[in-house]
């Protein structure tokens, strides 16, 4: 099937309304793009923040009457008859195959590999986590996840109890289980993340050692290892909660931290943790340590 992309420049304030208009006029999908390379950091959980200059992109079937659609859009008060747009043909491709081709097995540290199910495992004797990109965040491609995976690969997790705080796809939980953890407790505010974590655990045949909870249902426990790959804001706000999951002598690893905010996280957690040297990967950082008291 051939497609057309209709691109309209907008402000953050009007972007969602314009997207709704495109959907009402037959767009098969609507996406929002950064029109001027303006970074946005630290959205709160569940919060949608758009760029000050946002490009709204609607995907239309090439057989749609675009003249009629553009005429209707020009009558909307939000746009007006002189609104600026760009209409481009989109090459007809096997988009699913192209998407799949972008994901390859990835190695983290010496032992650990993350492998999509449609690829051959590079090293059958390695610690292989089978994980496909899905609804929840975390496939190993983002530096924050990679930082945590490399840390896990260097740890002895044999027989340990681990908490994955903000488990997302379950990638860190699965890696910990494959690396020898006795059990992992995954916690996330998103029910879809919990579902994804358990589905991925079943695919890796470790579901009997993974338990998942919403924050309001999370159990009281002290773990040997606590992982929190979230954002620096929640890491600061939830410090008492994260701390209490970690037993004295237990280990903590955190990421999702902008490198420039690393000193704030270190200062907050140094009160009760002996911290390791923080690791930096591009714009992102990992902070880890051992609970001292």
UniProtKB/TrEMBL annotation:
Task: Output the Pfam families linked to this UniProt entry.
Answer: PrmA (PF06325)
Cellular component (GO) terms are: cytosol; ribosome
Q: Would you kindly state one Gene Ontology biological process term found in this protein's UniProt entry?
A: methylation
Give coiled-coil spans as residue ranges.
none
Keyword Cytoplasm appears in the UniProt entry? yes
- What EC number(s) does the entry state? 2.1.1.-
Query: Which one of the record's GO molecular function terms can you name?
Result: protein-lysine N-methyltransferase activity
Gene3D superfamilies given in the database record? Vaccinia Virus protein VP39
Where is it predominantly found? cytoplasm
Record key words, sorted: Cytoplasm, Methyltransferase, Ribonucleoprotein, Ribosomal protein, S-adenosyl-L-methionine, Transferase
Its annotated compartments are: Cytoplasm
Signal peptide stretch: none
Residues reported in the UniProt entry to bind S-adenosyl-L-methionine = 145, 166, 188, 229
Q: What class of enzyme is it?
A: transferase
Cell cycle found in the keyword field: no
Q: Which reaction does it catalyse?
A: L-lysyl-[protein] + 3 S-adenosyl-L-methionine = N(6),N(6),N(6)-trimethyl-L-lysyl-[protein] + 3 S-adenosyl-L-homocysteine + 3 H(+)
- Into which family does the record put it? Belongs to the methyltransferase superfamily. PrmA family.
Q: What does this protein do?
A: Methylates ribosomal protein L11.
What is the protein name given in its UniProt record?
Ribosomal protein L11 methyltransferase
Q: What is the organism field in this record? A: Alteromonas aestuariivivens
């Amino acid at each position: 099937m051939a497609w057309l992309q209709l691109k309209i420049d907008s402000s953050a304030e009007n972007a969602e309304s314009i997207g709704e208009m495109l959907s009402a006029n037959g767009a098969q999908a609507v996406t929002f793009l950064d029109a001027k390379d303006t970074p946005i950091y630290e959205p709160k959980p569940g919060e949608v923040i758009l760029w000050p200059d946002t490009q709204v992109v609607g995907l239309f079937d090439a057989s749609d009457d675009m003249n009629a659609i553009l005429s209707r859009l020009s009558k909307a008060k939000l746009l007006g008859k002189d609104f600026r747009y760009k209409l481009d043909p989109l090459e007809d491709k096997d988009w699913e195959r192209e998407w799949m081709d972008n994901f390859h097995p990835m190695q983290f540290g010496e032992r650990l590999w993350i492998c999509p199910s449609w690829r051959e495992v590079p090293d059958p004797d390695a610690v292989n986590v089978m994980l496909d990109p899905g609804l929840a965040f975390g496939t190993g491609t983002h530096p924050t996840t990679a930082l945590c995976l490399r840390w896990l690969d260097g740890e002895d997790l044999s027989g340990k109890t681990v908490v994955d705080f903000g488990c997302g796809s379950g990638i860190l939980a699965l890696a910990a289980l494959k690396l020898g953890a006795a059990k992992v407790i995954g916690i996330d505010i998103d029910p879809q993340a919990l579902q994804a974590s358990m589905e991925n655990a079943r695919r890796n045949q470790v579901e009997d050692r993974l338990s998942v909870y919403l924050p309001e249902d999370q159990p009281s426990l002290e773990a040997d290892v606590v992982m929190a790959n979230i954002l620096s804001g929640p890491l600061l706000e939830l410090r008492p909660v994260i701390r209490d999951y970690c037993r004295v002598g237990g280990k903590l690893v955190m990421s999702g931290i902008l490198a420039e905010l690393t000193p704030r996280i270190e200062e907050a957690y140094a009160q009760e943790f002996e911290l390791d040297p923080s690791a930096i990967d591009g714009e992102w950082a990992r902070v880890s340590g051992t609970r001292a008291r």
